[in-house]
Amino acid sequence: MSIIRYDELTWPEVGRLPRQLPLVIPLGLRPYLLDGVAHSLRASDLGLLPAIPYGFPQPDGGGVARLEVGRGVFRRVLHGAVSRLARQGFERVLFLDGHGLARRWGLNGMGLRSARFSEPGEPANGGGGWPEDIAERVAIVSAGHTEQHGHHLPLSTDTLIVEAISKGIVERASDRVFCLPVWPYGVSTHTDEFPGTLNLGGRVFEDFFLAIVGRLVQLGARRILFSNGHGGNHSFLVNVVKFAGERWPQAFVATEWLHTTGPSLARHRQSPPGGMGHGCELETSYVLHLREDLVHMDRATTEMDFISTADYSMDWIENGRLIANPPWSDDTSSGIYGDATVATASKGKLWLEAAIDEKIALIDQIFEQHQRRMARRSERPSRPTP
Questions:
Q1: Which residues contact 26 (CB under 8 A, 6 or more apart)?
Q2: What is the structure's pLDDT at 120?
Q3: What pTM was estimated for this model as a whole?
Q4: Which run of H or E residues covers position 225?
């Protein structure tokens, strides 16, 4: 049996996969017995997608077991995770359920299949114990995605980058932060143009993470930062923090546009304006540093013919006053924006270090913001009850 890791493929490789290939999405981070799954499906090959790490009841699931959202919201998450796979023609998409979720939550008809874990114990790749002093830390919620990044980069590019930043934060500030496992299902609006790209759906994404914020606040968190690895998530994360600020004023909840936006970007780049956007010099350099085995530099391209005007252009972030979402195929045939050919692993290492520095600075500001706001509120006279 062979395991085909969906998110390690490029979009043309996904386009060539047989649509009868069984695709499985693990629930939780503990490793499953995939040989047994393949045998039960009578399959010689399995396509393995990123695990859904939290949001549901997980006995022995470590700290993430506490991050349970409502059944209705989670049902929508499951639907969003598979909807684009079905639209791309994949005929057999299943969730691996080692937690009895179908029975506990009655999620019949959602493609949950009972499966056994390969070994007992805590998750091998994150989701450890819950800190008792969560109120004294910043909870980091990292949001990646599974989407196309041209002919040369894997679908996991955004997730790989934001996960590396999360690990760096823990190494630098382990006593001040608590990092959730990276969430690998984000929002894309160009899923029909390039195979492989998934889309949880904007409203589902918002509702899920608003529920996660509520759960974190209920568990004692008072400082929460969404660390974002994917531009398509941004506007929806902004909505989450706006709603959260109104619902839970006792907590300071914030997000950012994207990682690596400080002066190091200009200091180390070789491409001109327009050379960084998507699957570009920056992201390719990151993945060369983190997972060189997943990069096909012989397929790297340059696509910088973005239709720009004075108030609408592309360079890592959209520039100018205009905000729009035209079809990607207007501006790119390979799926990238920018110049991937000048990427190097050494620049990826430098930019990762810079991104971690930027995040530590944001964490410092979040502590200051929360402390000063609580102090100001305590100084104000209480308002009379109407």
A1: 32, 48, 49, 51, 52, 95, 96
A2: 65
A3: 0.95
A4: strand 223-228
